[in-house]
Amino acid sequence: MRPTDCPYDVLTLMLARPKGALEQVCLVLCHQAKNLFNTANFLIRQVTSAYQYDAQAKVNRLRPELQANQAAVIAHINAQIVSINAARKARHPEKVAKATSLNKEAPDLKLIPTLDAVMPKLAGTLLDATLLDNAARNWQSHDGDAVYKRLPAVMSQQVIGRLRDAYSSFFEALKVYAVAPATLTGRPRMPGYLPKHERFVIELPIAAISVKRGMEADGDKPATPDRGYLPSLKGKTIPVDYAETSVLDDETMAAFSAFDLVGAVNTACHKRGWKDGCTPQHVRIVPRRTGVKMEAVVRVPNAYPANSFLARLVQDHGPALAELTKEKERDKWIVNYLKDLPAKVLPRFAAIDLGTNNIATVAYSTGHQAAVHTGGHFDAVMATMNEVIDRFVSENTPLRARELQGKKNALRKEKHTLTKAEHRELGALLKPIYEEPRYQDLTARREVWKEQYLHRLSRGIVRHCADRGIEVIVIGKNARWKDEVDMGRQQNRRFCQIAHARLIEFIRYKAQLLGMAVVTVEESYTSRTSFVANETLACYGEKTPMAVPADSLTSLSSASPDVAPVTLATSCGKRSSNRHWFVHSQPRECLQRVHSDVNGAMNIGRKLFAQFAWHARLSLKFVLWRLSERCGVVPVQLQ
Q1: What span, in angstroms and rounded, lies between the C-alpha atoms of 117 and 103?
Q2: Same domain membership, residue 269 and residue 148
Q3: CA torsion sign, 353 to 355 to 361 to 362?
Q4: How many independent structural domains does the chain possess?
Q5: Among 419, 436, 453, where does a domain finish?
Q6: Same domain, yes or no, for 296 and 246?
Q7: What is the pLDDT of residues 148-195, one digit of tens each?
Q8: CA distance linking residue 12 with residue 286, whole number of Å
Q9: What's residue 439's pLDDT?
Q10: Is residue 502 included in any domain, yes or no?
Q11: What's the rounded Cα separation, in Å, for the pair 546 and 536?
Q12: What is the pLDDT of residues 524-546, one digit of tens each?
């Protein structure tokens, strides 16, 4: 859910693919961005490796013996700190004079401490935005050239900013790991170097683009920008390749500066019908294996539809939601709000059970038949693509790599692993295969097809929910459900190749555009628990099962004359041998068996709405749906 004071959506648009000289310059700039990323990463790594953390005193101590690179980098950074502090003092001479008279350091100048033998807060000093930017700008390579100055300053600053974000996340994760290591999958790893022939993403804020405004203006309103050009590369010496055998000529660089970026963004917005109020924020130049692509992040005015669930939620609880600055906090607030709702005012909701054979099973609280989206077509296409990729890898795998893989599989059964040297050897043998253009092309095609499939599936699910007046979508998702899966090699591959988290993301943003709330809950034991018998739901890892309020059935009965009270039961049934059905041990009227995924989806809804229970107005019947390449989601015609 977006902030309450944000009447727009932030969307990513794909612009027309660059060609010719523009594409060549973009590729070269992305390569230089990689060089700058590695240069700044080198500076940070030399400093962090020169210090050793003293856990008892909670400080970082400089090692007694430093390598030449470590000493050179520390001296360089200290020189930059002295220069930055001197400039900050020069801007406020009065504060400096007053602090000097009192024998104190001026507190408001935000002076940076130098890298001394003992550093209480090494990360805070090292990741200072001004310091890191100056250190990278003035660091010269062995030939006296500064990589930072090969790019426009705004591009270099964005590259440094992305590296700072990566290290900030790394240090925060280290703090969490030191306190509660079980909450993470392993010890956090420091950001590494990018391969020498790799390229890095370039981000460009629209504010840094040279904009020429139109001549027309309406009254006191400023004219809207008609054209905006990329930064100029005039006077820069930019090597073309890693060996730096040649540089870009002025004519080629002029094609980059002459590209009308704002015009391209406006054209892309107009094609999608966003003619008024579409505001571009920044542009990304993303390198691909062959060429580059341009993406624009834009703001599109889109308030929640009138009388929708999210619109009413913002209207009734706007002040409480306004205090929550993070999206996760707002989503958690919505979950707690929905859990406390009484049975009579429960919103119309849909519960989704994600799986493998059936990718998504959607059950409705409105009485509509459930929708079971089969994964047969997905499995067939993915199996064909995987077979081609596996054949290519098998044909190019050397004999030594086969031996190490066989040894690895044998050790895995005994819960052992290869030595570090064997791991490195196996990785070095397989690396040329994964770098083959043929392999990268095959995997890229598979990922593109998978992305399109999930887009179409999510669109069909959200459209069905909108047609049925759904207000809340509840999706079952367990933490680390793919890290700890052990269903056999083939089933593991089938389950892990479906990007369920990506599907949830697609459903979330498409549903929120229509004013529907989307929440996720843990789904343990939902398939083995009877929904019809209102069997008590358990939660994985908890000793006591999830309690069902005793007055839930009474309140439901009073709300509808068709609701019959149901007594709680245990072991009310089990899944059939083919896993398709949930068979009740004591059938209730005609409900001897229920589709197991429909039963699981209903229980997922019960995980959120504790007051929700089976009643006669609900339908546990289902319709099979499949995804057609041409028509989207269509019902399956059973013969």
Answers
A1: 23
A2: no
A3: positive
A4: 3
A5: 436
A6: yes
A7: 999 999 999 999 999 999 999 999 999 999 899 888 888 999 999 998
A8: 13
A9: 92
A10: no
A11: 7
A12: 777 778 787 777 776 665 554 44
Cut 0.70: pTM above it: yes
| 427, 401: one domain | yes
Residue type, 441: D
DSSP characters for 19-85? -HHHHHHHHHHHHHHHHHHHHHHHHHHHHHHHEEEETTTTEEEE-SS--HHHHHHHHHHHHHHHHHH
Q: What is the DSSP secondary structure assignment for residue 291, as one 8-state letter?
A: S
pLDDT at 586: 62
Tokens of 597: 């995924």
Closest to 632 (Cα-Cα) out of 453, 467, 364: 453
Residues 76 and 176 occupy one common structural domain:
yes
The residue out of 275, 301, 327 marking a domain boundary is 301
Identify the burial level of 372 via C-beta atoms within 10 angstroms of its C-beta, where 0-12 means exposed, 13-18 middle and 19 or more buried: buried
Give the 3-state secondary structure of 613-638: CCCCCCCCCEEEEEEECCCEEEECCC
Amino acid at the residue 69: N
Digit-coded pLDDT (tens) for 563-587 = 344 444 445 666 665 556 766 666 5
Rg (CA), the chain: 30
Q: What stretches of 468-530 show up as alpha helix (H) in DSSP?
A: 489-497, 500-513
Say if 403 falls within a structural domain: yes
Q: Does 615 map to a domain?
A: no
Residues 41 and 158 in one domain: yes
- Does the residue 475 lie in any domain? no
For residue 370, give the 3-state DSSP assignment: strand
Distance CA 129, CA 156 (A): 12
What one-character DSSP code corresponds to residue 107? G
Q: Examine the domain organization and report whether 128 and 221 are in the same domain.
A: no
Calpha distance 424→484 (Å, rounded): 25
- Euclidean distance between CA atoms 112 and 123, whole angstroms: 12
Residue 218 confidence (pLDDT) above 60: no
Per the structure, the complete domain to which residue 249 belongs is given by 8-23+200-301
